[in-house]
Amino acid sequence: MERENETKEELKNKEVQEIKDKIDKNIDIDKIDEMIRNNKLEFEYNKIKYRATIPTFKQKSELNEKKREKFLNLLKDEKNMLEEDLKKIYKKRGIDIDEINQKILALEKQKSDYLLKLGKALKEKSSDNDLEILKNEINKIAGEQTALSIQKMNLLEFSIESQILIYIYSYLAYLIIQKNIDDKWVPAWNTWEEFENSDENLITKASFHAGMVLKNDMEI
Amino acid sequence: MIWKFDEIVKILRILAKSNYYQLIYSQEKNIGLRLFQNDTDLTKIQSEFLRQLQFYSVLYLDYALGEINEKVFENDVYEDAYMYYKRKKSKEEDEKEDIKEKNKKSKKVSWVFARPNRKK
What we know:
The complex is a heterodimer. Chain A has helices at residues 2-26, 29-37, 57-76, 83-92, 97-123, 128-155, 160-176, 192-196, 200-213, and strands spanning 41-45, 48-52, 177-181, 184-187. By secondary structure, chain A is an alpha+beta fold. Chain A folds into three domains: 1-37; 39-82 and 159-220, no CATH class; 84-158. Chain A has a four-stranded antiparallel sheet. The mean pLDDT of chain A is 86. Chain B contains four helices and no strands. Chain B is elongated and about 75 Å long. Chain B has helices spanning 2-17, 19-31, 44-64, 76-112. Helices cover 72% and strands 0% of the residues of chain B. The model of chain B has no long low-confidence stretch (mean pLDDT 83). The longest helix of chain B has 37 residues, at 76-112.
């Protein structure tokens, strides 16, 4: 039994690491440095230059309209579920998402307490060993929080809310990404269908850059 | 999206901690060195970078004042822990000051409206 639990734990850690590795490959420090300097985020894909521009009022309105449309369409189909519906189904199967949320919050409180202790220890210039012990506790708690957050994210992946989020970031990319053709910036895609049929890696890059150009998440 | 932004924040921290960006940040107002090419319409990434620059600026200042030693700069956890502790302490002190101020004011009020003793 103990061994079985150990294997599950190992698998969970492996999953967390895999996701982290996947993310690291897409981001490099020089690129971020460049992204800081101006508010026009450029990237290259298949030897074509692309850029994300700040959305105009008209584009934001269009995005909002599409978001509303998509939400209502998903809601009409009874096969689609809201987070609350999914939570009820999971609960019947013995998975309590509210409990996961509570655990995440409790861990946050624990982490804050340790941060406070460590901060005090640093101010008082405590021994390296004492600092190391507190740091390891904090890292352990942060790891548990990450694992729970990933678990929750995976469980709610197919909820209407998650689908909407993916859709609006993709639609935003479709609206604001431009490509450079003969030294002129033109929309990267002429239609939404064209965007949907593009290379998946380009869509990922485009959505990522589109998200970065926003002032904050409340904009969409 | 949330995942990727977290990873970006890690890189922003490395850049904000660098001497190069700290120098620009500290000299931005004094000699007009510009941090960004744009003056308005800051992106999410630029706003977060400003926040990180301020974070490290405070940390370096405390180091210069001898409040902390270089051990704090060894990793993100130490840096966050110290700043968290500092903020908490400063909040506690502000609250104590507020209570003192309130007490002072309430004493003054009672003095102003104190009923004069009647002469017997």
